[in-house]
Amino acid sequence: MYAPATVVTPPLVNEVDIVIPTIRNLDFLEQWRPFFQPYHLIIVQDGDPSIKIRVPEGYDYELYNRNDINRILGPKASCISFKDGACRCFGFLVSKKKYIFTIDDDCFVAKDPSGKEINALAQHIHNLSTPATPFFFNTLYDPYREGADFVRGYPFSLREGVTTAISHGLWLNIPDYDAPTQLVKPRERNTRYVDAVMTIPKGTLFPMCAMNLAFDRELIGPAMYFGLMGHGHPISRYDDMWAGWCAKVTCDHLGLGVKTGLPYLSHSKASNPFVNLQKEFKGLFWQEDIIPFFQNVTLPKECTTAQKCYIELSKLVKEKLVSIDPYFEKLSDAMVTWIDAWNEFNQSADGATTVKVKPTKPK
Amino acid sequence: MYAPATVVTPPLVNEVDIVIPTIRNLDFLEQWRPFFQPYHLIIVQDGDPSIKIRVPEGYDYELYNRNDINRILGPKASCISFKDGACRCFGFLVSKKKYIFTIDDDCFVAKDPSGKEINALAQHIHNLSTPATPFFFNTLYDPYREGADFVRGYPFSLREGVTTAISHGLWLNIPDYDAPTQLVKPRERNTRYVDAVMTIPKGTLFPMCAMNLAFDRELIGPAMYFGLMGHGHPISRYDDMWAGWCAKVTCDHLGLGVKTGLPYLSHSKASNPFVNLQKEFKGLFWQEDIIPFFQNVTLPKECTTAQKCYIELSKLVKEKLVSIDPYFEKLSDAMVTWIDAWNEFNQSADGATTVKVKPTKPK
């Protein structure tokens, strides 16, 4: 067990929800207590609703299981995956906060090279609160960081930057590899602490991992749909990738920034590569067609919000990806259902009131 | 003075030339001796030919001053800048090696966080000898590095990578800032060692600095022209930027990779910001139009070599940039002259013999 830890003064405590897909690891919230306890947690239970999730004393949280999701969303619950971490996006939908930090329960506090524990959430908030630079590469990385700036030759007209919508953090110890790479390199550990945050340039896609991810829910939340994965579907382990492709092209279209790099956390456990291979094997070859699709997507200029972009993407998915597999027809429909649900639960542009939800365990 | 240092076993000693634009700093070659002495140096003297450049004993070098450049190139010497570091590109032209490493004489050996001296040249050769990944971003940076790989979601069809043509290194201590930033932040020093090499994605431009730069001369040399700068021209300090814009769009068109990050060296001296402001002030506002021009350049598919790309770029410069200033008409013509000279001094595709040059000081 851990000694009672000092809880640090946190940034934007009333504007952030931490979304966690199930907690099986009892140490998880104890270890993160100094950093997470001041925040509100949304836990989305991915499997059997009869299994009780234990949350340590002192945490403020709401917990949703499958019964809650069905009750709250009604028929629209079909868009939320079951028995799969992809269900976490339900938490994004019911949150009322500006920012989401989502993390897996096998991820623990990492230390920087000086031995200091890394406050991952604070770094994410910093990344989201400072501009991004998607239009031109700055060779000294984040120009807004203490001790850095734009280098010679960086256009002055671009130095104001753009609003950051996504902050993608990294992992020490177990790297986020696919099953084939896990099988080939079972002993590989990431020990390299790269002290950088950078903007992923406009027009470039990246593999977005949800183990250590934060985003501005108001700006990009509608594109953070984790798809139809796991139980009843031919694919898993592509929930965050799907969200990443959709969110990146949406950010590029809307002129929003996506950062990757710091903060690190420590990923403790490699999942079983054989199970993973079974889950992801369709994705491994589908992505060879899906990625060129997203690389070539252009959205019409009428798409001025993430919702509108996402509806347009759903149409393009139906038009262009169904030839890969009939699954994409269901996915396209689910994308529309997701946006319907999003609009129902979130303040719409015309100021209509939004639905209040009641979790299993009220805070 | 320095104690005699052990000279390290170098990579590809017969395939690399080190090109230096003048050496005013006597310590420079002494400090780099353990790393540079096995290589051949090409020194291009930028100013008064009567000033004698002193090169320490034990170095194998050739030295060209303005008289040599005029004698060797004849009327084509007009494309090589005078009294400006931009003259260094003459060294790229007369080299017969596969790789060029170019460095300024106010750059010294840096130390990594463990205190070990960094062999910048060895790291550049490593960067150039391993593939680049311009089509998709790898969040754990260089996937070919020991202890790293492609992360989950990286398309397998792209894991072979592409040939790397350019390796752009960075600077500890004095960062490479423009004059306004120097004036605003006179005391800023770069102390952050970011332990990463990354590919700059296709379609993204970057500010290429020639203080610490290596490239594959055979693949991209013709695009590494440093323009008309300094004496007799309205602009300076944009020689490497110009080469960087041209070389990056050429690499993108030809499917070649550009890396930035490691190695670091230590940049010892900030140049005078007032002098710099005078040199670069036209560039500061011209770049606001030049960069969008390069961002929108498309080269025809018939351009299958760097030479062909560069001739096409020269036409586009004349067509699109002369409206900024008549200077760009001269620059466009000089770009053509440069390629004429390049083809004269380098093996042409049809196997014609190339011109042998005789420096002031033969090796």
From TrEMBL, chains A, B:
Keywords: Cell wall biogenesis/degradation, Glycoprotein, Golgi apparatus, Isomerase. One of its GO terms (cellular component) is cytosol. Glycans are attached at residue 152. It comes from Helianthus annuus. The keyword Glycoprotein applies. It comes from the Eukaryota. GO terms for molecular function: UDP-arabinopyranose mutase activity. It catalyses: UDP-beta-L-arabinofuranose = UDP-beta-L-arabinopyranose. It is found in: Golgi apparatus. Signal peptide: none annotated. The keyword Zinc-finger does not apply. Belongs to the RGP family. GO terms for biological process: cell wall organization; plant-type cell wall organization or biogenesis; UDP-L-arabinose metabolic process. Probable UDP-L-arabinose mutase involved in the biosynthesis of cell wall non-cellulosic polysaccharides. This is UDP-arabinopyranose mutase. Its main location: Golgi. The record marks 152, 159 as: Required for activity. The gene is RGP2.
